[in-house]
Amino acid sequence: MKSIFFLQDSSIFKKIMAAFLAALLPLMAITWMMNEQGADHIRSEISDSILNTTRFYLDSLDQEADRISRYLPNYVMDRDLMEVAATGEQMNFYERSYKILDIQHRLDLMKNSSPFIRESKAYIPQIDRTVLSNSYETKLNAEEYEAMQPDKKLYTGPFIYWQDRLFITMQYPAGKKDPLYVVGVELSTGKIKETLAQIGNSRGGQTVLFNLERDWEINSGPDLELHDLMKQLAFEKQAANVDEGYDTIHYKSKRFLTVFKYSSLWNCYMVTSIPEEMILGSLQVYKALFWWACVLAVIIVFFFTYFLIRLIYRPLIKLVRSFRRMQQNELEPILIDRRKDEFGYLYQAFNDTVKSLKTLIEENYEQQIRTQRSELKRLQSQINPHFLYNCFFVLCRLIKSDTQKEKAYQFCLYIGQYFQFITRHNDDDIPLEMELEHSRTYVEMQSICYGDRIQVLFDVDAQPIEVPRLILQPIIENAYKYALGNMLGTGELWVHSKLRNDALYIYVEDNGEFITDEEIEALGKKLRYSTNQMEETTGLFNVHRRIQLRYGEEFGITVSRSELGGLQAIIKLSMS
Q1: Where are the transmembrane segments (predicted)?
Q2: Of 206, 213, 223, whose CA–CA distance to 270 is shortest?
Q3: Cα 257 → chain centroid
């Protein structure tokens, strides 16, 4: 939900891309799921099929081994074999030869009874001979005869594995350590390998018959590394007591489908491993096509994104930036690089709007400027005659006194400088240095009037900027008029400045005793709302309105309690 709310405040480009991906990605995900589920289903079906084939061939081997084991006692109880084994040395040569030929004939019948029998044998130690089905003159192989003894095989299984050869044997009499003879068959490992090969070799795999307890095996394939992995799997399944099933072996960056089946008769695991690419070849093609489809989808996304940026996003951003410039009073037309489409219409409409706004501004700007200049002249005219009335009374008093001739002369010079500044300069803005010089002239005039009753510290840096005329002297005049002029004690006036954050602050502070905190707060409130009042005003309000007309509403005059104890008036001017 948070992502949805985030998109609500995003650009149109992000919303379109999100909608496009929201439609494309689920389709790709569904296709991938269908491919994977189909592969899993086919893998399961093929695994069951191979497992059934393994069951069939293993059952065939079980049946053959069981049939041989059940028929072997019939040959062990052969009368001729018993007689030769018991009295062979006492028989004449003809009679013994005749009986051995009969025994060979019956061994040959047993050999031909099953394709899995390679040879039938009778081991007769009394005459030191091994009777074969197809050979008459043979000697008893003592090592082989020793390996055929019952203690060489498990009681739970009929098989003896010796020198890569597999045997099923039975002795007479049973249970004795030194029997009269042993009858056995040698199974054809080649035929068993052919049977195992029919399961998986045609598909590029191999099948192995593992006897894990006696550590013998019959392998139908040449890959020994894969054989070791199959044997490891057989050990794992034996430890887990799992008789049949299928698993996956990873070998040489390939996946091998591995089917296993346990035979209790052979006490063996038959394990078959087949490369998945051989049995899932068509699915691999579909998977490759799916990934190609993914690549194509990425290309389509980039293609769609490119044309979306070129045809919609960039023109839209261009239009948005033009509107932002318009908000900053930069009325510049858009270069129309579109033909008769929607953005071409919007560009032309924007340019027409810019042209109309420029016309309106040009028609109203001069009228607005004239109005502001008229307001400034009107406000300045309120100041010009303000100080004239009292100057002549002070001058007359100084002239009458014989001891004040020099002060009278100096006072006349100050009056001339003062009114010369008022009447000669018609510019709305003057250098700050000139405004400070005029304010010092006014302070010197007041020092002559009040003498030592008022102490003045004038410390303002003359910054190289232009300011509206008469912004400092009226504030100093208010300090004399309302705070210092009527004091019984010594008055203090401190005029200083600070430069901070691209703005100049001029402080006018006094130690007046008459103004209260409530009056200071009321005066500050009137100053904040004075720009909305058009009635005639003088003093602080006069200066405050002219500064705001010149620099903006964030500049002007603010008031607070001074460190000297009286009023502090702060004039904020822009350095730019």
Answers
A1: 12-34, 289-313
A2: 206
A3: 36
Q: Are residues 352 and 271 in the same domain?
A: no
Let me know whether 368 and 408 are in one domain: no
Total domains in the chain come to 3
CA atoms of 302 and 47, how far apart (whole Å):
42
- pLDDT tens series, the chain, 576 aa: 444 444 444 566 677 777 777 777 787 778 777 777 777 777 777 778 888 888 888 888 888 888 888 888 888 888 888 888 888 777 777 788 888 888 888 888 888 888 888 888 888 888 888 888 777 667 888 888 888 876 655 445 678 888 888 888 888 887 777 788 888 888 888 888 888 888 877 778 889 988 888 888 888 888 888 888 988 999 988 899 998 988 888 888 888 888 998 988 888 899 998 888 777 766 667 677 777 888 888 888 888 788 777 777 777 787 788 888 877 777 788 777 766 677 777 777 888 888 888 788 777 765 655 665 665 565 555 444 555 667 777 778 778 777 777 888 888 888 888 878 877 656 778 899 999 999 999 998 888 888 888 999 999 998 999 998 889 988 998 898 888 888 888 999 999 999 998 899 999 999 988 889 999 999 998 888 765 554 444 568 888 888 888 888 899 999 999 999 999 999 999 987
* Cα(324)–Cα(245) distance, integer angstroms: 71
Judge whether 536 lies within some domain: yes
The verdict on residue 344 lying in a domain is yes
Residue 164, token pair as written in the block: 């890569």
172 close to 184: Cβ distance less than 8 angstroms? no
